[in-house]
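DUF4177 domain-containing protein, pasting as requested.
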Amino acid sequence: MFGGKKSAAPQPFDNEGYSHEYEYYAAAYLGINAFNSGVNELARKGWELVNGAMAGTAHYAYMRRPLKKPSND
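Structure tokens follow.
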């Protein structure tokens, strides 16, 4: 459609040797004050702000935190 090329078929993903380093969380707040206090509360729990966006009075936060690595003890 619209003269574009078809994309190639998706290739299987090799999971061997791949590990996730972060977990992600998206949060939505109504108003800047709620956004600030919400992001600060999540930061106290170990989350860091990756990206933020605003649409009207709604504010969105994309957060991440490192996954805990299993100990080899």
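Note for the archive: The mean pLDDT is 85.
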